[in-house]
C-alpha cells in the first residue's frame, strides 16, 4: 500500500507583504497610523502620506482634482481633504491577520536543502522523502504530513490542552474556595452550637447555685426570727424586773404578791436561758464524686467528627433486579481521595430518584429514597416505584455528585425469584410434591416434602442441612406442618386423620386422632341453595348464597338475602339428600312488615300519647319518651312494660329530646324552657343547664367521649357541650343544606356527627367540619326528601334514616352505606309509617333491627334491616 502524502501550499511572508501590503507609490508597508491604506474611486489603494503629498501640488490645489498614481484616473478631492477618502477594508483585514499570525519556521532537510522535512504520525518520525534511510521504510504505509504542518498542529493542540487545563484549574480553585467557605461556615455553626450548649450547662449550674444560696438564706431567716422573738421576750422580762427593783418602798401588804411575781419571773427567765433555735447549718455535698461525674458527663458530651470521603471516587451499584411495588436496593460504596475503601459512616448522603427522560428536564416530583448507613463505608439506598420503566438515581455527598451519578435503574414489571430451591427427585437438593414451608425463630427453614415422606431442614442461608424422617410422615399423605416456639414440629395426615407432635429429629412425642364426638343435636353437613322459582323449566341463574348457622339444639338457621321481590325456592340437603319439604317455597315481598309493635293512643301502661324518642341502654332496657303523657316508659329487653318514670323535667308536654348515658342517667331536652336536664334512673333531677344561644332546640344525643350534641332548628346550628355542660363549640349547617331547617342529630362512627335537615342528611367530623352528604334515594331528589330521624349501626356501618317524601306525603326507611351510597328503602304496605320522629338501633335480642317512633300512630315499631 502506497503512503499517503498530504500536499500543502506555503506562502512566503515577505513576498505576500510586498505584493499586497506595500504602497505602490512609496513602497512602504501600510500601517494603522501615518500610512493608513486609503481607497480611491478607481479601487486602487494609496497610503495616507502619499495622498497628502499629492494634495500639496499646485495643480491639485487649484482644480481640487488629483490623479491616481497607478491608472492616472482623476479623482475629486473630498471636502475634508485626503483624510476623508475611505479606508481600504481588505488591506486593514490583512494587516490584522498578519499581526495575529505567528511566523512559522519551515524546516528543510540538511542534505537536500530545497526539500521540506516530512512527519509520520503513526511512527512519530521526521524524515526526508529523498533520503533512503532504513528507518523510514516502515512509514510507506502511514499518513505523512509536512513537518511544518505537524509543528503547527502540535502547537495548536498544546495551546488548546493548556487552555483546557487552565480552565479546569480555575474551576478547581473555585470549588476549593467554595469548600473552604463552607468549612468555615460549618465551623462557625458548630462553635455557636457548642457555645449555646455550654451556656445552657452553665446556666443550670448557676441556677442550682442560686437555689442553694436562697435555701441557706431562708433557713437563716427562719432561725433568726425564732432567736429574735426569744430576744424580745428576754428584754421584756428584764424591763419588768427592773421596774420592780426601782420601787424600793414596798407595802407590807403587797410583799407576798410581789415576791410571787418575782419568783414567777425568775422561773420564766430560766426557760429563756437556752436559745430556742440553734446555729447549726451544714452543706451536704460530695465534691469529689460530683466533680468526677461532671468530668465523665462532660467527656461524653459532644464529639467532633469529620470525613475523608471523596465523592468523585464513590460509586453506586444495583444489588439485584428491580421490580415494581417492591423495594429497590442500591449500594453506595465510599472511597477516600487516594481510592482506598472507607470503613466508617456518617456522611451526609442524599439521593433522589426520578423517571429518565430523553426530551428534556423531568418536572415530576422525585421519588422518596431512604438512606441506611451500614457503618462500614457503605450505604443502602432504598426506594419503591409503582410503574415500570427507566429511572435515574442522583446521589450526592457533601452536595457533590458521586462518580457514576446519575445512575440508571431499569425497573421491571415482572418479579423474578430471589432464591430458588429444589427440583424433582429424592436427592439432598430435590423435592417431590412439597406442600408446606415454615421458618423457626432461629431462621432455620423446614420444607414438608410429602412425596418423599420427609422434612428437609435448611439453614438461614437456604443451604441444605439434613432430612428429618418420622413415622408420622407416612403414606405420602402429610398435608400440614407447623413449628412450635419450643422447636417441636406438628404434622397433619389427612389419610390417618392424625396430628403428631415430634421433636427436632422426628421422634413422635404425642399423637391426637381427629375423631371428635358429635355435638348434641348438631354437626350435620347441611347445605342449602336458594334460587328464583320458575314454571317454564330449569333456572339457569346463579344460586343465591345461603349461610348455615348450627344452633346446637337440632335446629339450623338458614340465612340469605335477595334484592328483588318474587317467588323463590330453597333446596336443603343433609348428607347430600334432600329433606322432606325440599324444595321449600319462599315468597319475598317488596314491603317490610314490623317485627314488633308497642303502644296505642292513651295514658295506660301500654299506651302512648305523641311519643317522640326511643333509646336502649347497654343492658337492653328500652326508654320511650312519651311526651304527651309527660313521662318516660321503661320496657325490659323483651319489650314488656316495667314502669313509668316521671320527673319535673318532663313538664308542659314539650320534651323533644332524650339520651341515655353509660352511667344510667337520663338526659332530656325541653324546647319550650330551652333546658337540658340530667336525671337519675327514677327521674330525680341531678343537673339542669340552659344556654343563652338556644332558640328552638329539637334534638340531643351523647357520643362516646361524653360530649353532648344539641341541634337547634331555628338557628340551623349544632351546639357541642362537654359532660359538665360547658360549651365547647358550635357549627352552622345552613351553608350545606340551602338554609333548610334541622330535623335531627345523631352520633356516627368514630364520634362523627350526622345532621338531618328538611332536604338532606349531612355528615360532619367530630370538630364540626363538613365531610359529605349521604344520599337518601337512588335518584337525586334533594328538595323533596326530609330526614326526620337517623341512626348508625356500629356493626354493619349502615345508616338507617326515617325519610319523609314531601311531594308524595309518604314516609319510609332508607338504608345507606356510611361512605355515602344509597342501598335500599323499606316500606310497609299494611303498617306504613306516617310521622316518624325517633329512631334507635336495636341491641341484644333486637340485633339487626331498628326501633322507629311513629308519633301520628302513637306507637313504636321494630323493622329488620340486616
Task: Describe this protein's structure.
By secondary structure, the chain is an alpha+beta fold. Among the domains are: 13-100, Zinc/RING finger domain, C3HC4 (zinc finger) (Herpes Virus-1), CATH 3.30.40.10; 311-412, Immunoglobulin-like (Sandwich), CATH 2.60.40; 434-513, Thrombin, subunit H, CATH 2.40.10; 526-588, Immunoglobulin-like; 596-864, Neuraminidase. Helix content is 19%, strand content 32%. It contains 7 helices and 55 strands. Strands 10, 12, 15, 16 and 17 form a 5-stranded mixed β-sheet that branches. A 4-stranded mixed β-sheet has the order 1-8-6-7. A 4-stranded antiparallel β-sheet has the order 9-11-14-13, with no helix packed on it. β2 and β3 form a beta hairpin. α5 (147-246) packs antiparallel against α6. The longest helix has 100 residues, at 147-246. It is extended and about 150 Å long. The model has no long low-confidence stretch (mean pLDDT 84).
Short description:
With 866 residues, this protein is an alpha+beta fold.
Shape: extended
Mean pLDDT across all amino acids = 84
Subunit arrangement of the protein: single chain
Distance linking N and C termini: 99 Å
Major sheet description: 5 strands, mixed
Structural class designation: alpha+beta
Low-confidence stretches: none
Q: CATH H level of the domain at 596-864: which superfamily? A: TolB, C-terminal domain
**Tally of helical segments:** 7
Strand content: 25-35%
What Rg, in angstroms, do the CA atoms define? 54 Å
**Proportion in helices:** 10-25%
Amino acid at each position: 500500500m502506497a503512503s499517503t502524502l498530504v500536499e500543502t501550499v506555503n506562502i512566503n511572508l515577505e513576498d505576500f507583504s510586498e505584493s499586497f501590503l506595500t504602497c505602490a507609490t512609496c513602497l512602504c508597508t501600510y500601517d494603522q497610523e501615518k500610512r493608513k491604506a486609503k481607497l480611491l474611486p478607481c479601487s486602487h489603494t494609496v497610503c495616507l502620506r502619499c495622498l497628502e503629498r499629492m494634495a500639496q501640488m499646485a495643480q491639485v490645489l487649484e482644480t481640487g482634482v488629483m490623479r491616481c498614481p497607478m491608472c492616472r484616473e482623476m479623482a475629486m478631492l473630498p471636502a475634508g481633504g485626503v483624510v476623508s477618502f475611505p479606508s481600504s477594508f481588505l488591506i486593514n483585514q490583512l494587516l490584522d491577520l498578519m499581526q495575529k499570525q505567528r511566523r512559522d519556521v519551515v524546516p528543510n532537510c540538511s542534505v537536500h536543502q530545497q526539500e521540506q522535512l516530512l512527519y509520520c504520525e503513526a511512527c512519530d518520525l521526521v524524515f526526508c522523502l529523498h533520503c533512503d534511510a532504513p528507518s523510514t521504510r516502515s512509514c510507506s504505509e502511514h499518513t505523512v504530513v509536512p513537518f511544518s504542518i505537524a509543528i503547527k498542529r502540535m502547537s495548536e493542540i498544546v495551546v488548546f490542552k493548556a487552555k483546557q487545563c487552565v480552565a479546569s484549574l480555575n474551576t478547581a480553585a473555585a470549588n476549593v474556595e467554595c469548600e473552604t467557605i463552607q468549612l468555615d461556615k460549618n465551623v462557625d455553626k458548630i462553635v455557636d452550637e457548642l457555645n449555646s450548649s455550654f451556656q445552657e450547662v452553665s446556666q443550670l449550674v448557676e441556677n442550682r447555685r442560686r437555689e442553694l444560696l436562697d435555701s441557706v438564706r431562708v433557713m437563716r431567716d427562719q432561725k433568726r426570727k425564732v432567736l429574735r422573738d426569744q430576744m424580745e421576750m428576754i428584754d421584756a422580762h428584764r424591763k419588768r424586773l427592773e421596774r420592780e427593783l426601782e420601787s424600793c418602798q414596798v407595802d407590807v401588804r403587797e410583799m407576798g404578791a410581789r415576791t410571787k411575781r418575782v419568783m414567777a419571773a425568775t422561773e420564766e427567765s430560766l426557760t429563756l436561758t437556752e436559745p430556742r433555735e440553734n446555729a447549726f447549718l451544714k452543706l451536704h455535698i460530695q465534691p469529689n464524686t460530683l466533680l468526677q461525674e461532671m468530668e465523665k458527663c462532660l467527656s461524653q458530651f459532644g464529639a467532633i467528627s469529620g470525613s475523608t470521603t471523596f465523592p468523585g471516587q464513590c460509586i453506586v451499584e444495583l444489588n439485584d433486579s428491580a421490580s415494581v411495588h417492591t423495594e429497590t436496593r442500591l449500594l453506595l460504596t465510599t472511597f477516600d481521595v487516594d481510592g482506598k475503601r472507607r470503613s466508617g459512616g456518617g456522611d451526609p448522603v442524599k439521593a433522589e430518584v426520578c423517571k429518565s427522560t430523553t426530551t428534556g428536564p423531568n418536572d415530576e416530583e422525585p421519588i422518596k429514597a431512604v438512606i441506611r448507613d451500614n457503618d462500614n463505608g457503605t450505604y443502602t439506598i432504598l426506594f419503591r416505584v409503582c410503574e415500570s420503566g427507566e429511572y435515574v438515581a442522583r446521589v450526592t455527598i457533601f452536595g457533590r455528585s458521586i462518580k457514576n451519578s446519575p445512575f440508571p435503574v431499569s425497573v421491571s414489571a415482572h418479579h423474578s425469584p430471589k432464591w430458588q430451591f429444589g427440583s424433582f427427585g429424592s436427592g439432598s437438593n430435590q423435592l417431590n410434591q412439597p406442600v408446606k414451608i415454615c421458618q423457626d425463630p432461629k431462621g432455620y427453614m423446614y420444607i414438608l416434602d410429602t412425596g418423599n415422606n420427609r422434612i428437609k431442614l435448611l439453614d438461614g442461608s437456604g443451604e441444605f442441612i439434613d432430612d428429618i424422617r418420622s413415622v408420622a410422615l407416612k403414606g405420602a399423605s402429610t398435608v400440614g406442618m407447623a413449628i412450635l416456639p419450643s422447636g417441636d414440629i406438628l404434622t397433619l395426615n389427612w389419610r390417618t386423620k392424625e396430628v403428631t407432635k415430634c421433636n427436632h429429629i422426628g421422634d413422635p412425642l404425642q399423637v391426637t386422632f381427629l375423631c371428635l364426638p358429635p355435638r348434641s343435636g348438631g354437626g350435620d353437613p347441611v347445605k342449602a341453595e336458594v334460587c328464583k322459582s320458575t314454571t317454564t323449566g330449569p333456572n339457569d341463574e346463579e344460586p343465591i348464597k345461603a349461610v348455615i348457622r348450627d344452633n346446637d339444639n337440632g335446629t339450623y338457621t338458614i340465612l340469605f338475602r335477595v334484592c328483588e321481590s318474587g317467588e323463590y325456592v330453597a333446596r336443603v340437603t343433609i348428607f347430600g339428600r334432600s329433606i322432606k319439604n325440599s324444595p321449600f317455597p319462599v315468597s319475598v315481598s317488596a314491603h317490610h312488615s314490623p317485627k314488633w309493635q308497642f303502644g296505642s293512643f292513651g295514658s295506660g301502661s301500654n299506651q302512648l300519647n305523641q311519643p317522640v324518642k326511643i333509646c336502649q341502654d347497654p343492658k337492653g332496657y328500652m326508654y320511650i319518651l312519651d311526651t304527651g303523657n309527660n313521662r318516660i316508659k321503661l320496657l325490659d329487653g323483651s319489650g314488656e312494660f316495667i314502669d313509668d318514670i316521671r320527673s319535673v323535667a318532663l313538664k308542659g308536654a314539650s320534651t323533644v329530646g332524650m339520651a341515655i348515658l353509660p352511667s344510667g342517667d337520663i338526659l332530656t331536652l325541653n324546647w319550650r324552657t330551652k333546658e337540658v336536664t340530667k336525671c337519675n334512673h327514677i327521674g330525680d333531677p341531678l343537673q339542669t343547664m340552659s344556654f343563652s344561644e338556644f332558640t328552638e332546640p329539637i334534638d340531643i344525643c351523647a357520643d362516646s367521649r361524653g360530649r353532648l350534641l344539641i341541634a337547634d332548628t331555628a338557628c340551623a346550628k349544632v351546639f357541642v357541650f362537654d359532660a359538665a355542660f360547658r360549651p365547647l363549640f358550635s357549627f352552622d349547617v345552613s351553608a350545606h343544606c340551602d338554609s333548610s331547617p334541622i330535623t335531627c342529630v345523631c352520633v356516627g362512627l368514630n364520634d362523627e356527627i350526622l345532621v338531618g335537615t328538611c332536604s338532606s342528611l349531612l355528615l360532619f367530623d367530630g370538630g364540626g367540619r363538613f365531610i359529605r352528604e349521604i344520599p337518601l334515594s337512588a335518584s337525586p331528589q334533594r328538595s323533596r326528601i326530609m330526614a326526620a330521624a337517623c341512626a348508625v349501626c356500629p356493626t354493619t356501618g349502615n345508616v338507617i334514616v326515617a325519610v319523609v317524601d314531601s311531594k308524595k306525603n309518604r314516609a319510609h326507611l332508607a338504608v345507606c352505606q356510611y361512605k355515602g351510597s344509597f342501598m335500599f328503602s323499606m316500606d310497609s304496605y299494611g303498617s306504613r309509617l306516617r310521622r316518624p320522629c325517633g329512631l334507635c338501633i336495636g341491641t341484644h335480642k333486637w340485633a339487626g333491627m331498628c326501633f322507629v317512633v311513629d308519633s301520628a300512630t302513637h306507637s313504636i315499631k321494630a323493622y329488620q334491616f340486616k
